[in-house]
Amino acid sequence: MKIGFIYSGQGAQYHGMGKDLFDASDVFADTIAEASTALGWDMQALLFNEDSALNETEFTQPAVLTMSTAIDRMLRQAGILPSMVAGLSLGEYSALVASGALSFEEAVCLVQKRGRWMTEAVPSGQGAMAAVMNVDRQIIEVTCEAVSQTHGLVIAANYNMPAQIVISGETAAVEEAQARLELEPKSKVVRLKVSGPFHTPLLAPAAEKLAAELETIEMSEMTLPVVSNINGQVIGTTEAIVPTLIEQIKSPVYWEECVQTMIEKGVDTFVEVGPGKALRGFVKKINRNVTVFNVENLSTFEKLISKLKELEEGNPNE
């Protein structure tokens, strides 16, 4: 069995996430406290007190990163170790923390700034995203290219799985692309509740600010292979991390390719680490032959421990 950890992205957050883990685990609680100290505000209150700020990008990003890292530390304490890691968009920072390339303290402060810069790059209402289901990749790309000639920028921004691609861009362009794609047989298009056109060139101003900030951070050697969103390939060297993160904020996320690469490298058991279970669903649609778990609360944590023990004993009762 070869385990890969995959880390949640923005949009997976919810009020009260991790509360039972916080109550049950000193490692989890200590990670929350570490985040609060680094950021200078109360992460515990943000997570557990129905705070509306949890859905504001500059607070969402450190919150999801903190929860993912806290669960990662719990898993390692329990002896569950990944051989390879990846994360969806924001989750790539959790993966880099897990690899040892980036300290948690630096990462949690960095992603708060990243979130703020992403929000500032495109004023609210001027950008949008929509998930497109059951439409061929090439049709989506051609439609976006055609719409961009007349209505503003829109691109395929998240290649999540074979039957789901997210388009992103200027609001009018996304609306026009949505109208055209809804004419495709069996298609379903759903507007996402996000504050901007993430993973498009419209985020270039945020990428410039991120680049300047990354110059102040020293990356360490990766102790685990990290698969990058920008091309679905393993990040080859420590020196490649910074340019990868700069490009990632304004470029499409090739999540399907990330998962395929992990499988090609021998990963047969995926564990989604962090809030939600969207990535678990994506992996199952990409390859039904792998085993997939998610850990976001005490029950899923305990289930994973039990199931992995069964698998190791040769009794995979899923």
TrEMBL record:
Malonyl-CoA:ACP transacylase (MAT) domain ranges (all copies): 6-298
SUPFAM superfamilies documented for this protein: FabD/lysophospholipase-like, Probable ACP-binding domain of malonyl-CoA ACP transacylase
Catalytic activity line of the entry: holo-[ACP] + malonyl-CoA = malonyl-[ACP] + CoA
Active-site residues per Swiss-Prot or TrEMBL entry: S89, H199
Cross-referenced InterPro entries: Ac_transferase_dom_sf, Acyl_transferase_dom, Acyl_Trfase/lysoPLipase, Mal-CoA-ACP_Trans/PKS_FabD, Malonyl_CoA-ACP_transAc, Malonyl_CoA-ACP_transAc_FabD, Malonyl_transacylase_ACP-bd
SMART domains recorded: PKS_AT (SM00827)
Single GO MF descriptor: [acyl-carrier-protein] S-malonyltransferase activity
Pfam annotation, one family: Acyl_transf_1
Known EC number: 2.3.1.39
A single GO BP: fatty acid biosynthetic process
Main enzyme class: transferase
One GO CC term on file: cytosol
Keywords: Acyltransferase, Transferase
PANTHER family: MALONYL-COA-ACYL CARRIER PROTEIN TRANSACYLASE, MITOCHONDRIAL (PTHR42681)
Family to which this protein belongs: Belongs to the fabD family.
Protein's UniProt name: Malonyl CoA-acyl carrier protein transacylase
Lineage: Bacteria, Bacillati, Bacillota, Bacilli, Lactobacillales
Gene behind the chain: fabD
